[in-house]
């Protein structure tokens, strides 16, 4: 369980840094506002899938609920 928690903390730190970098670089793209909103929503969906795959599934596995992951 400790290993799963350490892995989760590392994944959340990496995802947070990537999220921060994307949010800093998005205003530099020369595209209109409707398309910027679409890009922002797609970034949120991708990061949510990463968090589900690398955080929630290992937590469930550590708790005894064995769920097949997306990359297993």
Q: Can you characterise this structure?
A:
The protein has 72 residues and is mostly helical. It is built from two helices and no strands. Helix 1 (2-25) runs antiparallel to helix 2.
Topology, element by element:
Elements: H1 2-25, H2 33-63
Protein traits:
elongated, 0% strand, mainly alpha, 2 helices, 76% helix, 72 residues
The helix tally amounts to: 2
Unreliable residue runs: none
**What form results from the Cα inertia axes?**
elongated
Question: Major sheet: size, sense and barrel closure?
Answer: none
- The beta-strand count equals 0
Sketch the topology as an H/E string, one letter per element.
HH
What does this entry show, briefly?
The chain is mostly helical and 72 residues long. The chain is built from two helices and no strands.
């Amino acid at each position: 369980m400790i290993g799963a928690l350490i892995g989760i903390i590392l994944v959340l730190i990496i995802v947070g840094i990537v999220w921060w970098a994307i949010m800093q670089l998005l205003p530099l793209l020369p595209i209109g506002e409707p398309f910027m909103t679409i890009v922002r929503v797609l970034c949120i969906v991708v990061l949510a899938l990463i968090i589900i795959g690398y955080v929630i599934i290992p937590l469930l596995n550590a708790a005894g609920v064995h769920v097949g992951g997306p990359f297993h």
